[in-house]
Amino acid sequence: MPAPVMSQLENTSAILGEYMLKGWTLTDLHCDKCRVTPLMREPNAAATRESRDRIQFCALCDGRPETRISNSTRQLPPPTQSSSMIVNNQEYEEKETLNQSDEAALSISDLLLKGYSLLGENCPNSNCKGIPLVGYPKKSNGMKDSRKLCVSCNSRWIDESSIEKEGMTIINQSQESPKSKAKWELYGLDSFGNAQINQSEGKGEKKVLDNEEFDREARDSVKRLQSGNTEKEEDDVNMEEIDKDFDDESKAKAQTSSNMSSHPIRPMPTPRPINNPIPPTSDSQLGQALESTSNSLSSTLQNLSSSLENHTSRPPIQKRGVVEPDSGKWFVDLKLHTEAIKDVLGVLGQVERARRVGY
Predict the structure, then answer these.
(1) How far apart are CA 83 and CA 79, in angstroms?
(2) Which H or E element spans position 262?
(3) DSSP-based three-state secondary structure for 267
């Protein structure tokens, strides 16, 4: 009696199940020709060991990929020492860039859940390769916060046109505060920290201040500080409250002296949505929406669990030396069930966290 001929669907399911058991990945991409069958991707370890690209095939249109693997594993000439060094350096740079991108992606994901927004511009810092900036949440009064944050170098940026709107002031080298100027004069130094010198009359020669002149200038500076203008001192206090972490005047000058379209600003206190998340009440619209979503996800999870239990109770019959036609389809359905349950559990966990803690 001749063996029964497998249909096209059964043959495709058998190939998918066979290669899933071999460690291949069932992707969410579909074939460009048939537009129905999901593509299978080869494990990365096998392709790396044979120094070739990973194979991706359609079980319906391409069949088994054994011939493609044998053709792609031709004997390659041994690499020279210089080419090996170049490849190693490139791999190290790519690995370092990937690690930086992965860490930035995790940080950005956490901030997006806390109310931040992803902007369409990258960090101006040369060490941050392609790291996008994130925008701060809205202020408590509903106004837009113009500050921008880089999760890689932790720098804060702001557009030059938004500096006045935020109540900030750019301090140029020629605009030195009276308090800072008097502080330099107290120690007999100029604004750049150099020894202060005076020109003598007539010949234009320069001489360093002697001890008596230095003491006299120091006493005069102390008197000017004590009897200074009250309004100027209040302005200085306000500036110091804004720039708590940047008390050094020289750093502020170096950062603001260049004519750039964006200027880094100092770290500000973290907005309230991060420090004090407020869970929604059960009577609010958000609380009711989260409760409805949680109930729907729980019902979906229960249906998937029942379907998976029913599916696993009827495994394919395994005979020695014979591959059953339904075995591949059975493993594909099992894979789809487990992936769906995993996704539903992840979303349900986020919803429950929002109900208990808030964002």
Answers:
(1) 6
(2) strand 262-265
(3) coil
Please give the structure tokens belonging to residue 88.
């190693």
Backbone angles phi, psi at 25, to 5 degrees: -105, 130
> In this structure, are residues 178 and 225 in contact, taking their beta carbons and an 8 Å threshold?
no
Q: Is the pTM of this model over 0.90?
A: no
Contacts of 303 (CB under 8 A, 6+ apart): none
Q: List, as one string, the DSSP characters of 5-30.
A: PPPHHHHHHHHHHHHHHTT-EEEEEE
CA dist 304 and 213 (Å) reads: 89
Q: Is 75 helix (H, G, I), strand (E, B) or coil?
A: coil
Tokens of 90: 């490139």
pLDDT tens for the chain, 359 residues: list them. 444 556 787 788 788 878 877 778 888 888 888 888 888 888 888 888 888 888 888 988 888 887 555 555 444 455 555 444 544 555 555 555 556 667 777 788 778 778 888 787 888 888 887 788 888 888 888 888 888 889 888 888 888 777 777 767 666 655 566 666 666 666 555 555 555 544 444 444 444 555 667 677 767 776 776 666 544 555 555 555 545 554 555 455 545 544 444 555 555 554 555 556 778 888 888 888 888 888 998 899 888 888 888 888 887 776 555 556 667 787 888 888 888 888 888 888 888 888 888 76
- What are φ and ψ of residue 64, in 5° steps? -75, 145
Secondary structure (DSSP) of 193-256: SPBPEEEPTTT--EEE--HHHHHHHHHHHHHHHHT--HHHHHHHHHHHHHTSS---HHHHHHHH
